Amino acid sequence: MSSDLQSVTRTPQGPVRISGPPGLINHWLAPRLLKLQDQFPDLRIALIGEAREASLSRREADLALRLFRPREDALVARKLTKVSYGLYGSKEYLSGRLPKDLDFLGHDESEDHLPQHKWLRAIAGDREFTLRANDLGALLGAVRAGLGLAVLPQTLARHDKALRQVPTSTPAPSRDLWLVFHRDVQRVPAIRAVIDHLVAIIKGERAKSGEGG
After folding, report:
1. What's the pLDDT score for residue 155?
2. How far apart are alpha carbons 80 and 140 in whole angstroms?
3. All structural domains of the chain with their residue ranges
4. Which pLDDT score is estimated for 194?
5. Coil vs helix vs strand at 162
6. Do domains 3-82+175-209 and 83-174 have the same CATH topology?
7. Domain boundaries 83-174, CATH class
8. Which segments in the chain show pLDDT lower than 70?
9. pLDDT value at position 111?
10. Would you state the torsion angle of the CA atoms of residues 116, 86, 142, 54, taken in this order, to the nearest 10 degrees?
11. Cα(194)–Cα(29) distance, integer angstroms
């Protein structure tokens, strides 16, 4: 993007590239951009959903959503919120089904080290996962279709009328969600507008839920 031009005009305009895991980009971030688009119609947001971490130092993206805090000195990380998880299945699938007959759906093996997937493995015990998916959208679709239970972000699943959260003996883990950007671009008007918008949106959602600031 042309940061030099924006530094002169001070008007939020042009492209801003935001990278992050596909599930967060598609299901968490995208629905929260409408007010920003209305406020700054000259912004051009490019959403990049990918499993790999885009290099902000090499300008592969302007902003990134990450579920861990980066360690590079040149990067700034703003904690946006906590991502809470739960075990979910479709209401139809769970109706009258005994615990011993439950099927479990997991993410790709490359994510088995993550806290929420370790938690699911502990619940599933020695039962093999009936299905694995490398995309949150695919996993959500499988749960909706009645293929079994999966660990899903509560912000995504709790408002889905087709799903029901399954009580568990141990609470699901939660993870911090970070908005990350390079120090050199944080004053570019378009990037600053996106940062401020997301921070304001999160504060508003916390206030509505009674969590406070």
Report:
1. 86
2. 23
3. 3-82+175-209, 83-174
4. 95
5. coil
6. yes
7. alpha beta
8. 1-9, 209-213
9. 85
10. -40
11. 11
Which residues, at least 6 apart from 139, have a Cβ–Cβ distance to it below 8 Å?
105, 107, 133, 150, 152
Instruction: Compute the distance between CA of residue 204 and CA of residue 183 in angstroms, rounded to an integer.
Output: 26
- Give pLDDT, residue 5: 44
**3-82+175-209: which CATH architecture?**
3-Layer(aba) Sandwich (3.40)
pLDDT of residue 201: 87
pLDDT of res. 210: 64
Decide: 51 and 22 in contact? Cβ < 8 Å: yes
174, with CB counted inside 10 A (0-12, 13-18, 19+), is: middle
Residues 6+ apart with CB under 8 A from 57: 72, 74, 75, 182
**3 state DSSP class of 40:** coil
Name the residue among 155, 175, 174, 177 with its Cα closest to residue 80: 177
Residue with tokens 């109706």, as numbered in its chain:
95
What is the predicted pLDDT for the residue at 182? 94
